[in-house]
Specification:
Blueprint: H1 72-75, H2 80-83, H3 89-120, H4 128-141, H5 144-172, H6 177-200, H7 202-205, H8 211-238, H9 242-263, H10 278-294, H11 300-323, H12 340-354, H13 360-368, H14 372-379, H15 381-393, H16 399-422, H17 430-459, H18 465-496, H19 501-549
């Protein structure tokens, strides 16, 4: 039954881990609607539509007519053609392009750097080509919410593309490695800002029913970038055209920058932008630098020491954020009753698993005898599985199914990596090597099954627009930092595996399987916390029902909010 004003006052949902009605305090917390008919239980998958199932006691007094049952069209999930239709296509493509250029440039540059160093020198600075980009990228993702508050959607996007364009041009004309590193740092600032904006601007650029589709499109760009970056970099490197590659990235950024003012909705600006969290930035910068440098060390003990230092700095960041007045992450992240921290940890463990694909081509060449190009495409199978699975996963709206996907994602990822580790053989026959492709695809499918719903869970973790934007922007921070940690840990596992390629492959793949399996427990904690808050919200509604009806018969428990029917 609708309230007197004729509108459903309960918040709608788009499939977070706890179901509908996310409110401040955690994804999936359903707030009780005190104005709605207490005898009406809403279908949590209706996205704000009229309730899909009702239970009315025979003794209840007559009242206004119940709303008609929803039609199948009303319950149908939004289609991709709605996201990519005339109304939203321009904004969706520009946001996706922003995430894509940042993702492509990570692996594009890694393929170009050997050719670049051979041309302009600076071999001793080789490792810093990736380090400065990753550090700058993580820093920029932490400034997304402040950029939106100061410049709004359009201004923040123009700034991001302008930074990326400038950095690409500096790289293209660099006479030496020091200048190239400056360009890479500016590129990283632009790429990080664009990656964070891709998730944060969804809240204002798209209607809520399209948030899951939008998040799936944004996160799929990471997979496309992981696939296209090495291929494009290798192509340009083969012809010695590394300057042309950077110039091409500048052209792409210029085209996108020109399109921003036409297609990205204005808004998001605040009259009182918050202060810059310098303390948090300093700690995360130190942690990212430590883990990035660790990835290029040679001795296992030195790598382990570097990772330990990075973990200590990350713990110091969390402690500082918990007590500090100015934060990067939303306040709900640090509350004991909020599942948001478990959502971020699950996202981190899924993103951590992606780092293993950088080593799959190495194992393919050394154990399977594959040529470099074929081995590179083997590594891209993880990204392909991630990207394609999200197309199907983002169609799921039923809260119970979403919860199962969140838990299944880490399980599938860990299983795929473990099976691949067990399939490794020295001088593996081609038939066995061919089996690696579907197994890698399966591992990537675990990421794609859960990632878009975890992103929406973070976005809907608070009813406050400012905190919601901060929660969405933090998705890119978590993803970038986890990928950097994954690359460093993979380097340690390869070193521990010894000089034999078979030992290196098994240690790396099985080690990643064990670590990623921890995502099963964080996902369960995220969904359990959200469901507990939903049940707590259902109890006051049940009490209100008994008082309103004055029914002497025993109360029938209401369907807990957030549970699919």
């Amino acid at each position: 039954m609708t309230p007197p004003n004729g509108r459903n006052t309960g918040p709608d949902n788009h499939g977070g881990p706890g179901g509908p009605g996310a409110s401040d305090g955690g994804a999936g917390h359903a707030r009780p609607d005190t104005t709605a008919d207490p005898d009406t239980t809403a279908d949590p998958d209706s996205h704000g539509a009229p309730a899909g199932r009702h239970r009315t006691r025979p003794s209840a007094p007559p009242g206004p007519a119940l709303p008609a049952a929803p039609t199948p069209a009303a319950d149908a999930p939004p289609r991709w053609r709605e996201l990519l239709g005339p109304e939203h296509r321009g904004a969706a493509l520009v946001m996706a392009a922003g995430v894509l250029v940042g993702a492509v440039n990570i692996y594009l540059a890694s393929s170009l750097l050997p050719t670049t160093v051979a041309d302009i020198g600076g071999e001793r600075l080789y490792a810093w080509g990736m380090t400065v980009y990753l550090v700058a990228m993580v820093i920029a993702t932490m400034l997304v919410s402040r950029s939106l508050a100061r410049w709004g959607n359009t201004g923040a996007y123009v700034t991001g593309f302008a930074l990326f364009l400038t950095g690409s041009l500096v790289c293209a004309v660099s006479p030496g490695m020091p200048t190239l590193l400056v360009g890479r740092a500016v590129q990283g600032l632009g790429g990080g800002l664009l990656s964070g904006l891709g998730f944060a601007v969804i809240r204002t650029a798209l209607p809520r029913r399209l948030w899951t589709r939008g998040n799936a499109l944004m996160s799929a760009m990471y997979g496309v970038g992981n696939f296209a970056g090495p291929a494009l970099g290798g192509l340009f490197a083969q012809f010695g055209s590394w300057r042309t590659a950077f110039a091409l990235m500048a052209v792409v950024a210029a085209v996108c920058c020109a399109a921003v003012v036409r297609v990205v909705p204005r808004g998001g600006r605040s009259d009182t932008p918050g202060p810059v969290p310098f303390g948090s930035l300093a700690l995360v910068t130190a942690a990212t630098t430590a883990v990035s440098v660790t990835a290029v060390l040679e001795r296992a003990w030195a790598m382990a020491l570097g990772i330990a230092a990075a973990l200590v700095l990350t713990a110091a960041f969390v402690a500082y954020e918990r007590r500090g007045p100015v934060r990067v992450f939303p306040a709900a992240t640090y509350r004991s009753d909020s599942p948001l921290k478990w959502v971020y940890l699950t996202l981190a463990l899924l993103s951590f698993g992606v780092a293993v694909e950088a080593f799959v081509p190495l194992f393919g060449q050394r154990l399977g005898g594959l040529p470099p190009l074929a081995a590179g495409f083997f590594g891209a199978a993880v990204s392909l599985g991630w990207s394609l699975t999200q197309i199907a996963s983002s169609s799921v709206t039923r809260a119970g199914t979403v919860r199962r996907l969140l838990v299944a994602g880490p399980v599938v990822l860990a299983t795929g990596l473990a099976v691949l580790g067990l399939l490794q053989r020295a001088d593996a026959p081609l038939a066995l090597v061919a089996v690696w492709v579907p197994v890698l695809f399966l591992a990537g499918a675990g990421i794609g099954a859960a990632y878009p719903h975890l992103s929406v869970a973070a976005m809907t973790s608070t009813a406050d627009p400012g905190e919601g934007g901060r929660a969405a922007a933090a998705i890119a921070t978590v993803t970038s930092l986890a990928t950097a940690f994954g690359t460093a840990v993979a380097g340690v596992l390869v070193a521990v595996g010894g000089p034999a390629p078979l030992g290196q492959a098994r240690w790396t793949l099985l080690g990643f399987a064990v670590i990623c399996a921890a995502g099963t427990f964080t996902a369960r904690a995220a969904t359990a916390g959200a469901r507990a808050k939903a049940r707590a919200g259902a109890r006051p509604a049940a009490a209100g029902t008994a008082a309103a009806d004055q029914d002497p018969a025993p109360e029938t428990p209401a369907t807990p909010a957030g549970r699919g029917v």
